[in-house]
Amino acid sequence: MKRVHNFNAGPAALPFDVLKRAQEEFINFKDSGMALMELSHRSKEYDQVHEKAIADLKELYHIPNDYEVLFLQGGASLQFAMIPMNFLSSEKVGNYSLTGSWSEKALAEAEKLGKTAIISSSKESKYNYIPNINELIPTDDAAYVHITSNNTIYGTQWAEYPDLGDIPLIADMSSDILSKEIDISKFSMIYAGAQKNLGPSGVTVVIVKKDLLKDIPSSIPTLLNYQTHVKNNSLYNTPPTFSIYILSLVLDWVRAQGGVSAIEKINHEKASLIYNCLDESNGFYTPHAQVGSRSNMNVTFTLPSEELTKDFLAQAKELGFVGLAGHRSIGGCRASIYNAVPIESCEALVAFMNDFKTKY
Ligand SMILES: *Cc1c(COP(=O)(O)O)cnc(C)c1O
What we know:
Pfam families: Aminotran_5 (PF00266). By secondary structure, this protein is α/β, with parallel strands linked by helices.
């Protein structure tokens, strides 16, 4: 069977075992005589999948009891708008740390809806570092502070998170959710489109502290109000049942790997392999991210010229390495090495990169 080394940035690699299990259960799900996609979202069979996915995420990620886990639609991008709609009242200011394109987009949505402030930014240096957390000082009347925990396009990642006292910290974790152990209680809300580390596109995971939900104005349209989804256990309308099912299989896989701490360890090894290759290339490969801000999920780098970059990508493709072109906005190369990318793919990539360097 043909399988490539998949370094796509999102949608991205899924664990092989998950795909196989989905295939086995595809046509006749749990002896129902139907595919999961054909079942009612109110059926007993689907309900078990839904409840298990929520319970497993809570357990694996150590989510405290005063948090809700929601499965929404509209991607992380809809959260950019829902956050200010629900949490930014007219007297308050939405605070944003700008660390890349996704933070900019989150800010742009909030600007349409209320008052905002940029409280830290690394834009002036092409987002190649994460600002010091001690410089993250909220404004008076801050409604919340929003950060992007991993910058998928620039390849930077927050190594630690700020303590903001009473001010809610909200994080877009689309590209590093479940990639390492975190202290959930530092955050009032975490959200992530599933298609990088959790499963297929179509479902967005929201982990939100109950506290944050108490002052949501009732004027918000039903489907855009977090309370609607909390009250209905993410079943107010038809949820993306198939995406949630695959997500639940991914969670089973995470458990089988030894949980989030085991995944974190292997992610660190995977990233170190590639960063070491960059660092030991005598300047042939230049990493974009500064040391200390490097992402363990998206490794971004450039080659000495456009021409070499083209050759590199073409030869990589021929050898079965997929998805290594950098994002169209910054160019260069990017290896996305999410949870499901096996270490063998990273080893193979490093071998190819060393060969390529020697040849040129
Ligand atoms: C991919 C990505 C998004 C966009 O997610 P959608 O689900 O496509 O809306 C937002 N933020 C980050 C950090 C991402 O990596």
